[in-house]
Design goal:
Layout lengths: L11 H4 L3 H16 L17 E9 L5 E10 L9
Antiparallel strand pairs: 1-2
């Protein structure tokens, strides 16, 4: 299944079934690394990792044809334990 439908996938595994999303994903990683978005560090004791989620968005031109397939790796900040 290499052709892309004009449907935004809900999961990473669903997206990776399509060539267009497999091509778009490395671009997001490249720009995150280029912009030095994060650092690899040791996790302090009593801390938990913040999960992340891939978001898949189809960008359209004004004539409603597909401009590009865009991915974003988003931190699930709402999962942070705020000590409650």
């Amino acid at each position: 299944m290499s052709l892309c439908s004009h449907v935004e996938p809900n999961t990473y595994s669903e997206a990776m079934k399509h060539n267009c999303w497999r091509k778009a994903t490395p671009c997001e990683i490249f720009y995150l690394e280029l912009n030095q978005t994060w650092d690899n560090v040791l996790l302090p004791k009593n801390k938990t990792v913040i999960d992340c989620k891939w978001v898949f968005i189809i960008k359209y031109k004004t004539d409603e044809t597909v401009e590009r397939y865009k991915t974003r790796l988003m931190a699930k900040g709402y999962t942070i334990n705020k000590g409650h």
